[in-house]
Design a protein that fits this description.
By secondary structure, this protein is of the alpha/beta class. It has helices spanning about 5-10, 15-25, 40, 45-50, 55-65, 95-100, 115-125, 125-130, 150-160, 185-195, 215-220, 225-235, 240-245, 255-265, 270-275, 295-300, 305-315, and strands spanning about 1-5, 30-35, 80, 90, 105, 140-145, 165-170, 200. The strands form two sheets. It has a four-stranded parallel beta sheet. Strands 6-5-7-8 form a four-stranded parallel beta sheet, with helices on both faces. Helix 10 (about 185-195) links the parallel strand 7 and strand 8. Helix 2 runs parallel beside helix 6 and helix 9 runs parallel beside helix 10. The protein is elongated, with a radius of gyration of 24 Å. It starts with a strand and ends with a helix.
Length: about 325
């Protein structure tokens, strides 16, 4: 986050310990200090008292003054620490300290498979953000609680515990064709997030696996000729078909009218090859390195991956 500390908070001795806690997370690299009051903070009792943490705190603030001249990428969320909050984004020192110590939680349906998807997208598209996923202090974590219904309840519970939490939700749309809306469960979850100001990325494609590019499917390990035939058949699909083909289960035995319209023109041989899907382990393809998949991901993502990253950056 980008944190601004009101000079009046630094004049309140009762707030000094909480302000120190915020600085410790700044020192860990979780947040940035910015704002017009930075230079004025140096002369406040908070930083003049050498009998406590004043000297160390003053050094950290002075370093923040130097950094403030540089762009704040990838941080987006801003809070102001003030003794008397009056508007959104303003918090008391105690509440701000608690929030600063919270890692950003990316809530997904499956923290292993969907977590690997998000990690790969970040690694390919945004190196400045990627460092927050790879440090030992873990400023960003993944969590999962089950299906979309459980995710909605988790969002509601977390938002009852004080200031808006550092939380982003990423969820499959479960759409089965371009004309379909997201599933009712995904729609309800998105609505619950929107009402509480929580960024929620509902994937434009059916599921995370629908963003896999051919180079990562080709790299899938410990597979035989059947996998190769299926990749070749998948590669002949048009972009809309790739977006809504069930990568794990294959073609539906009971397709909707929209699915029939989408897949009815498949030749019988291609239909037979794609009928059973790639199986439940296809999400392992997100972990295949080294492979610079950015260009293919950009084409396969059709703009949605960049949009999703912006949702996540809102809470960094």
């Amino acid at each position: 986050m980008i944190i601004e500390i009101d000079v009046m908070a630094a004049h309140d001795e009762r707030a000094h310990d909480d302000l120190d806690r915020i600085l410790y997370k700044v020192e860990d690299g979780w947040h940035l200090l910015h704002g017009a009051d930075l230079e004025d903070l140096v002369s406040t009792p908070w930083l003049r008292d050498q009998g406590r943490a004043g000297t160390k705190a003053r050094e950290l603030v002075q370093a923040a003054i130097q950094r403030s001249a540089y762009p704040t990428k990838p941080h987006r969320r801003r809070i102001r620490v003030t003794p008397s909050p009056q508007q959104d984004g303003e918090l008391t020192p105690k509440h701000a300290a608690r929030l600063s110590e919270q890692p950003l939680v990316i809530l997904v349906e499956n923290r292993f498979d969907d977590g690997a998807f998000v990690r790969r997208i970040v690694a390919e598209f945004d190196r400045s953000f990627n460092k927050y996923l790879s440090t030992s202090t873990a400023p960003v974590t993944f969590d999962s609680v089950g299906g979309k219904g459980q995710m909605q309840r988790e969002v509601e519970a977390r938002c009852q515990q004080g200031p808006r939490p550092r939380l982003v939700v990423v969820v499959d749309s479960d759409r089965r064709a371009p004309s379909d809306p997201p599933s009712p469960e995904a729609t309800r979850l998105h609505g619950a997030c929107s009402r509480r100001g929580i960024p929620c990325w509902v994937l434009a494609k059916r599921e995370a696996e629908n963003y896999l590019p051919k180079m990562l499917l080709d790299a899938h390990r410990n597979t035989g000729s059947e996998h190769r035939r299926r990749v070749d058949a998948w590669a002949k699909l048009n972009e809309d078909q790739k977006d809504f083909y069930d990568m794990k289960e294959g073609l539906s035995g009971g397709p909707t009218e929209a699915e029939r319209a989408l897949f009815d023109d498949l030749p019988s041989g291609q239909r037979a090859t794609l009928g059973s899907g790639f199986g439940s382990k296809i999400s392992q393809c997100w972990r295949h390195y080294p492979a610079n998949a950015r260009d293919e991901l950009r084409v396969r993502g059709r703009g949605d991956l960049e949009l999703g990253l912006e949702f996540i950056r809102q809470e960094i």
